[in-house]
Amino acid sequence: MRLTVQWSHDRALSCHHQAPENLARAPNLQDYDSFTAGYGLDQARALVEGLPQGGLNIAHEAVDRHVHAGRGDRIALRWLGKDDSVREYSYRQLMAESNRFASVLSGLGIGRGERVFSLCGRQPELYIAALGTLKNGSVFSPLFAAFGPEPVRSRMEIGEARLLVTTASLYRKKVLPWRNELPSLGQVLLIDAGDDLPDGCLSLAALMADADPGHAVAATRPDDMALLHFTSGTTGRPKGAIHVHEAVVFHTLTGLYALDLHPDDIYWCTADPGWVTGTSYGIIAPLSLGVTLIVDEAEFDAERWYRILEQQRVAVWYTAPTAIRMLMKAGSEFAQQHDLSALRFLASVGEPLNPEAVVWGQRTFGIPFHDNWWQTETGGIMIANYAAETVKPGSMGRPLPGIEAGIVRRTDTGVSEVTAAGEVGELALKPGWPSMFRGYLHEQARYEKCFAGGWYLSGDLASRDEDGYYWFVGRADDVIKSAGHLIGPFEVESALLEHPAVAEAAVVGIPDEVAGETIKAYVALKPGFCASGELRREIQGLARKRLGAAVAPKAIAFRENLPKTRSGKIMRRLLKARELGLPEGDISTLESDER
Ligand code: ATP
Ligand code: MG
């Protein structure tokens, strides 16, 4: 099975690292091949300190360790409020606050391994609750504040929530309607409790005021459950992935090598902690490496984002293709009005980063765009483009040190490995890295189905080139089979995005008697462009030129926007279900969209 078109491979683009002079800094990973050759996970484990009394706790690595090492005055977290207010926490303050939260939990009788949920926006209390929960040896599960009442209820039911941290209005709207149906839920702590505290709720601020800032960290073991993260639900019902304290080893390693974090960096991750990226790389990795973390409370706004990059002097920025496409849609004029010279390293995750976006990023920011690939299940970055290496636009890069990746095909008896360059198969990983998920909570059979022949099977299709770089083809569920061709949505969508009018594109396979499937594209236009038959023909013409008639979409429908998960992933399965008049399936993570 060969990719029908590999046009992005040979689109030569020089993307060498061009750090601004004032911030030029030797990358942490200088020479990929020689570094990874001898690198094992035992060496990775030396990146963490461990608790003084023995054991390992993520929050100790993320916070306390820096205070004990004399770096307590450094700003750990700089929070930017929607109203432009700013709150800062040094590592010392974050240590005291998270200790207080652990002491609150322990005072309320919340024990080791018990689940603490959060349902709130990106507020400092969320970060303190996350770290404090880990310090108490309890398990933290952050929920996205924009979820409706049912997605909140079902996740808290699966997770057997003991305690919830939320706000008064979110509680009234999203929890109160069903609270009595969830007997496991003991306490609800309100971040913004006023005088009219609802029944069965406590004021977080009042409890924190009486709590112990010197509360001792629980002696958790590396294999103790630490986090429960629900997947994005792009392909179906979300799964609750279990992560353990040892994951911090890999968060530290990937923060160093995949994100190239240096201790005096200002770092901004735009992901919400309701998704794994917002926890692994929005809390744990950057704090474990002692950087200053920017947290923005507000939602996407192109002008605001450029302002933050400029004013905060962000050096390392980790964002997502959907955000980049929105910036592209807003136009590069915005970018030109800002001084972005502090930016040294730019990375993206969550969806394929179209070559067009890489080219745009290079032009707009003057530095390469580093795509990287991972999943809720892997807990941390598995495949990445590195600071010192050449970026091949459209490629996800190469495996992290200590990670063995492969391309495999499922057979009746197990799996067989594909070794030839350019051949497409399922992206697989040899299990055993520290941030590997340890199960889907209460779904053992679903978990076991992820493994075969000694591999963890990702459910994504990819190929590997002769230099060992991985190229994303599509999710196995989204791949289209048309007239004997196997077509990855990514290559078709990337070709459509080359048209100057196209802001976003998604393609799906529509059943066809002759071809098996034909390709239908859904396209959202940039401002200033109007849908017309002429534009449709133009876009189709470009796609034919790039991809050939067999692979170019047969039909194009214009949309205001495309259905996405709240983590920013296009839900192709929903476009297809609607097209075919089939049930929509689980849409608990869907952001509102135009049909
Ligand atoms: P669900 O498993 O519930 O369907 P999901 O797979 O979208 O949801 P996540 O774990 O949040 O949930 O996302 C991981 C997936 O995101 C990957 O399996 C892959 O399909 C996609 N992805 C992540 N990074 C990249 C990337 N750099 N390039 C292409 N795809 C990516
Ligand atoms: Mg998935």
UniProtKB/TrEMBL annotation:
<dbReference type="InterPro" id="IPR045851">
    <property type="entry name" value="AMP-bd_C_sf"/>
</dbReference>
<feature type="domain" description="AMP-dependent synthetase/ligase">
    <location>
        <begin position="69"/>
        <end position="441"/>
    </location>
</feature>
<dbReference type="InterPro" id="IPR042099">
    <property type="entry name" value="ANL_N_sf"/>
</dbReference>
<keyword id="KW-0547">Nucleotide-binding</keyword>
<feature type="domain" description="AMP-binding enzyme C-terminal">
    <location>
        <begin position="491"/>
        <end position="569"/>
    </location>
</feature>
<keyword id="KW-0067">ATP-binding</keyword>
<dbReference type="InterPro" id="IPR020845">
    <property type="entry name" value="AMP-binding_CS"/>
</dbReference>
<dbReference type="Pfam" id="PF00501">
    <property type="entry name" value="AMP-binding"/>
</dbReference>
<dbReference type="InterPro" id="IPR025110">
    <property type="entry name" value="AMP-bd_C"/>
</dbReference>
<dbReference type="GO" id="GO:0003987">
    <property type="term" value="F:acetate-CoA ligase activity"/>
</dbReference>
<keyword id="KW-0007">Acetylation</keyword>
<keyword id="KW-0436">Ligase</keyword>
<dbReference type="Pfam" id="PF13193">
    <property type="entry name" value="AMP-binding_C"/>
</dbReference>
<dbReference type="InterPro" id="IPR000873">
    <property type="entry name" value="AMP-dep_synth/lig_dom"/>
</dbReference>
<protein>
    <recommendedName>
        <fullName>acetate--CoA ligase</fullName>
        <ecNumber>6.2.1.1</ecNumber>
    </recommendedName>
</protein>
